[in-house]
Amino acid sequence: MDAPPPQPAAGLEAVFFEIRPDLIRRARAMGVADDAEDVLQDVWLKLGVATGPIASPRAYLFRMVYTAVLDRRRATRRASARDTDWAGPHSDGEVIPADAERVLIARETLAEVEARLLALGEPINTIFRRHRLGGETQRTIAADLGLGLSTVEKYLRKAYADLLDLGGDREA
Amino acid sequence: MTDLRDSVEQAALTWLVQVNDPGFDDWDGWERWLAESEDHQAAYWRLAEAEADIRETLVFAPRPTAKPANDDKVAPFRRPVKRRWFAAGLGVAAAATAAVWLGWPASQTWSVETRPGEQRSLTLADGSIVHLDGATRLTLDRRDTRALKLDAGRALFEVTHDPRRPFSVVVGEATVTDLGTVFDITRLTDGARIGVSEGVVRFDGSGRVETLRAGEGLTAIDGVVSRRLVGEAVVAGWREGRVTYEDERLAVIAQDLAREIGRPVAVAAPLAERRFTGSLNIRGSQPDLKARLELLLNVVVLVEGDTWRLQPRTGA
Known about the structure:
The structure holds two protein chains of two kinds.
Chain A: H1 12-32, H2 36-47, H3 57-84, H4 98-120, H5 124-132, H6 138-145, H7 149-163
Helix pairs in contact in A: 1-2, 1-3, 2-3, 5-7, 6-7
Chain B: H1 2-19, H2 27-36, H3 38-59, H4 83-87, E1 100-102, E2 109-113, E3 120-123, E4 129-132, E5 137-141, E6 144-158, E7 167-171, E8 174-178, E9 182-188, E10 191-198, E11 200-205, E12 208-213, E13 216-221, E14 224-229, E15 242-249, H5 250-261, E16 265-267, E17 275-281, H6 286-297, E18 299-304, E19 307-312
Parallel strand pairs in B: 6-7, 16-19
Antiparallel strand pairs in B: 1-2, 2-5, 3-4, 4-6, 5-6, 6-9, 7-8, 8-11, 9-10, 10-13, 11-12, 13-14, 15-17, 18-19
Helix pairs in contact in B: 1-3, 2-3
């Protein structure tokens, strides 16, 4: 994708072209190196499918690059995990087909995630879900629940640490 | 050494919690921290990927969400081995979200899919617009954004004209090429149906090449190509739930119905050769729709579990 399309680009597409060199640089800084162009192409393809007005095009694009890089890394990891972990946690001599095994793992994972969130109690459970599933900002949730912003951040940190099996929630 | 790794992990966690906030805007600060050391990068991405996998299991959870066996205490669980977070993900049973992105960054194609009854419009990079019907799947190619594939369902294409770069859609074994147009394609179980509202389109399939102009259409079914007039104004009617037919088989109409209502629609053998000419409104409540179909198609609609079955009316 070397040149802008024939039609005059508007809004988000115009900003994309304007700051494309910066986006490439950022993608590289996130560690994708040779794949930076591919990452930008992923972002470009999905640009036209934005729904609703966008307050800050630059911030929106930075996040799109971030998400594209993250998804690419996850897919690579999944692909290599499939190659090496064919046996899975349930084989005791019995070989289970890969898809069934993935579904089993996913169901168990979900059950454990749900159980951990419940064990964290309220308001952590609700705050985590509103933030990560509902897409609400920490600021919005804090205002809505009458809590301080740093309190909400602390609760989220606790949830993350628990879900990720990290030792405690000490500040660095 | 453990303390240092620990503190890197804690810093990575702090950043992750911030980055995931939709209002986050300190990308420069985050980047500076990442650049300080490869350990920072490794720690950050390990946590970010794991957290994204975890979030995804919740996003794609079948509803209602699972509850523990007892209400008063949480059922015990095993500490999972870390690698299992990575193995989980899109292996979960059917996603309930609209317009699911299906694409692996390592491959060159990506797809968009709609649920039955759910219509969606996409704007492509060149300004072309594609309107998807329900139960439709469209595959795009990163290498050529004007080469698409209609894997299932129906879509209306409004294509920006560019003589240097033809816009084409593969449907089954046929290819439809735009020559500057608005056109409609349906993937049928045994072929394809094309209608042109504006401009000119070339159809290439079943051993034939046909040129279709505004108001013209064709069906290619089981290798047989039949041209027909479609009426420019009605080509896009399906977007408002209005489908128009000229001498069309019930089997084709049944497929359009199935896409809208999200149930299989079967046609009894005695009705195989029955044809219909006219317009149908296929929106609204299912009881109303059923009654409308019986009247307009002169059939009886039997509901057998999930499936609607069209039967001939027996003489009164």
